[in-house]
């Protein structure tokens, strides 16, 4: 189960500028190989953002929460190039970018009880029943996430896919290491609007945010 990937393999040619951004900026604004050193972000509490997409929300969070260190991870190469370029151009000191699978990263490189939070906004909904096993918010991966969070750390997820929201609540309520920070859904105001969210809102979807705290 845990080796079932949560993302699509996407192809496509990258522009020379994007390839160049990966080549030159990842060594500076990425995370050095080996175990994640949470001191990397100047002693700030470290929050992992899983699946940042194009990274618009990442940049906004970094600007509005300068005291928080964000390690942003995605498998999608053009998005990684885009975020690296923006972090570099804006001179943001509280963001590091990882190009890879968040599950492998959490399992192999993040110490138990070390993160101040995990955020995953609009993870792929995998609407077909035969694909539900690919969802990020599923029992084994939620247990992995909870294990890497320090006591008091917050897991914040959001979706515009109502059946996924229901399943998220079931899975998160069943994880013994987490408790809901609210009665049901969390307030929307806690995070920036994301690109996928805008697309969902355009289609008339309701958005559900959920925040759970590590006990
Ligand atoms: C639907 S998009 C949402 C992007 C962004 N958070 C937003 O709201 O605009 C989901 C993103 O999660 C990424 N993703 C899925 N599984 C992942 C994994 N295991 N590790 C890293 N990124 C992942 C995908 O590549 C994609 O960019």
Please describe what this structure looks like.
The chain is α/β, with parallel strands linked by helices. It is built from seven helices and seven strands, in the order αβαβαβαβαβαβαβ. β2, α3 (77-90) and β3 form a beta-alpha-beta unit.
SSE map:
Elements: H1 16-29, E1 46-50, H2 56-64, E2 69-74, H3 77-90, E3 95-99, H4 102-109, E4 115-121, H5 139-148, E5 149-159, H6 162-174, E6 178-180, H7 195-202, E7 208-214
Helix pairs in contact: 1-3
The structure holds S-adenosylmethionine.
Short description:
The chain has 215 residues and is an alpha/beta fold. It is built from seven helices and seven strands, in the order H-E-H-E-H-E-H-E-H-E-H-E-H-E. The chain binds S-adenosylmethionine.
**For the CA atoms, what is the radius of gyration?**
16 Å
Shape: globular
Strand content: 15-25%
State mean pLDDT (0 to 100 scale).
Answer: 95
- How would you characterize the largest beta sheet? 7 strands, mixed
The count of helical stretches stands at: 7
Helix-strand topology string: HEHEHEHEHEHEHE
* Lateral strand order in the biggest sheet: 3-2-1-4-5-7-6
Share of helix among residues?
Answer: 25-40%
What's the end-to-end separation, in Å?
25 Å
Bound molecules: S-adenosylmethionine
* Contiguous uncertain segments of 5+ residues: none
Structural class: alpha/beta
Number of strands: 7
